[in-house]
UniProtKB/TrEMBL annotation:
One of its GO terms (molecular function) is hydrolase activity. It comes from the Bacteria. Residues 30-271 form the AB hydrolase-1 domain. This is Alpha/beta hydrolase. PANTHER family: ALPHA/BETA-HYDROLASES SUPERFAMILY PROTEIN, LIPASE-RELATED. Keywords: Hydrolase. It holds the Pfam family Abhydrolase_1. The keyword Ribonucleoprotein does not apply.
Length: 285
């Protein structure tokens, strides 16, 4: 199915502002919600525009733009938490009782948290990297350190270094991609969200909270996830190295792991056809 930005773009008014999203596929088909990741210039459309046509052949697809990333109106609060709240508000407004979800990186963490706390809303879950703790690799990873450097003091060269850490094949980082990401990354809302998530000061606050809080980290509660879960990973991911997959693979009762060779963090882009085939088969079971 051929989809375009303008044909699929939609808006939804909520009590917290406008949520924007992309919709494609037969309205009578089962729903599928796609949740984007984080980082400079990210949007749901940029994460999934290459996959939307394939998934829309079998599902009624919704690519939600999270608050605070320069597309939907910003919400007050920590971006990962407001993202989860926005998913529930979105589903309620559109009358979606439950749906399978695909989450890239941060979007996967959002999906995991929803599957833990609202299991009746998540029918199946597909994650793309990003889920779980660093078991053997350094934390923060190389990719996250580069992201932190950009968040602290954004410039174009730092953006390019981060983008090249996202992929195995450096040829994917084209001048068009750099320009597109740079323009979107300079959005004031997106800059503020990036600092809140990845700036040095925020990172230190998060580490102090984890060290002193009685609240367990989300990954320690993954045994509560009851839905079938497909963990997808790039073998050469420098943002969330593959050792992170070991904890969710063991803790989530009904989880399976698929690792794609010669692939970095953007599995849905760099291993596009193999990813789509794997996910389509998983959703069809």
């Amino acid at each position: 199915m051929d989809v375009t930005y303008d044909e699929t773009r939609r808006e939804l008014s909520t009590d917290n502002g406008v949520l924007r999203y992309h919709e494609a596929g037969d309205p009578d088909a089962p729903p599928l919600i796609l949740l984007h990741g984080s980082g400079p210039g990210v949007t749901g459309w940029r994460n999934y525009r290459g996959n939307l046509g394939v998934f829309a052949e079998t599902h009624h697809c919704f690519v939600l733009e999270f608050p605070g990333f320069g597309v939907s109106d910003p919400w007050e609060g920590m971006p990962v938490l407001t993202a989860g709240k926005s998913v529930l508000a979105f589903m309620d407004a559109l009358g979606i009782a439950t749906a399978p979800m695909i989450g890239n990186s941060m979007g996967g963490v959002v999906g995991v948290n929803l599957a833990i706390r609202k299991p009746d809303r998540v029918e199946k879950l597909v994650t793309i990297g990003g889920v779980g703790p660093n078991l053997f690799s350094p934390s923060p990873s190389e990719g996250l350190r580069l992201l932190q450097e950009f968040a602290d003091d954004p410039d174009r060269d730092k953006l390019v270094r981060w983008l090249r850490a996202m992929v195995y094949d450096k040829d994917l980082v084209t001048e068009q991609l750099i320009s597109e990401r740079w323009e979107a990354a300079m959005n004031p809302e997106a800059l503020a969200t990036g600092r809140a998530m990845y700036g040095s000061a925020s990172f230190e606050m998060q580490q102090q909270f984890l060290a002193t809080s009685d609240v367990p980290p989300y990954w320690a509660m993954m045994h509560k996830i009851s839905c079938p879960t497909l963990l997808t990973w790039g073998r050469d991911d420098r943002v969330s190295p593959p050792d992170m997959a070991l904890a969710p693979m063991r803790l989530i009762p009904n989880a399976e792991l698929h690792v794609f060779p010669r692939c970095g963090h953007w599995v849905m882009i760099e291993a596009k056809e193999a990813f789509e085939s794997t996910v389509t088969a998983f959703l069809a079971r």
